[in-house]
Amino acid sequence: MTLAASRRSVRYGRAVSVRGRIVPAAAGVRVKLFSESRTGRRRYAGAARTDERGRYRRALRLTRSARLRAVADGGAESRRVAVGVRPLLRARIVGGPKPGGWSISAAGRLLPAAGGQRVHLQRRDEGVWRTVASSRTARSGRFSLDWSDADTGLHELRVRFSGSGVALASSRSLGEVPALRAATASYYGPGLYGNMTACGQTLTAETRGVAHPSLPCGTPVTLWYRGRSATVEVIDRGPYVPGRSWDLTAATARDLGFSAVDTIWVSH
User: Which tens digit of pLDDT belongs to each residue from 173-189?
Assistant: First the structure.
C-alpha cells in the first residue's frame, strides 16, 4: 500500500493532508495512521476508509515532527513518510539596566512545547550570525536569554532554534537592539531659546537633541531613563560642568521625564 503527504513540512497548528491507496483495491477498508518515534514506537494519529478504487485520504493536525505510517485492516503497511513541523517561535526584548551594567535580555516561547530544547541569542557580525547566549526551554516551551557583556551600540539580534526531533529549525528576528552605558546628564534650554547651536540649529522649546563635547554633529544617540527611551541627534557642544557627559534639550528631557541632574543610559 502507498502513503504520501501533501507537504513535507507544515506550520505548527496547521493540518497536512495524507493520502494513499491499497492494492488490491477494495472499498470500505479501514486504514489507521500512526506517527512513529525513532525507536519505532507508534502513536495513533487518525483513520480513514478506502473508496471503491482503494484510495484513502485524511487531514492530520501534527503537534510535532513525525514519521507517518499507514496500516490497513489485514496487516498491510506503507512505507514511512516524514513530515516536519515548522515551530512557532515567539520572542521579545526585555533587557534594561542591572547592577553592574546594561543587559540585553530576551524572553519567549517555542511551540510545540517541550522541555530541554536549546535556543540561542545570536548577533549578526559582518554578515555572520554568532551565538552570544544560550538556554533551554522549560516544559511549557518558555525560555529566557541574557547577554550581559554586550558592547555599547546597536546590535542586530535574532533568536535561533536549531531544530530537533520535535520541530524543524526556526529563527525570530529581534531587529536592532541597543546596548547602553550609564552616564551623568543634565538639561538646558530655557533662557537660550533663539540662539544658534554649535551644529547650526536654532534652539527652541521644541528642539530635540543632545549636546556632547566631541561626538560629530548629527550622530544618532539612544537615551534611556526610568523606562522611557528616545533616539535623537547630537546638535550642540557641552555640557561644561565637570562630571557631566550629556546635556539634553528641554524637549528631549520632557520626552524622557527627566528634570534634574541624574544618571541616564546612552548608546555612546
Answer: 999 998 999 999 999 99
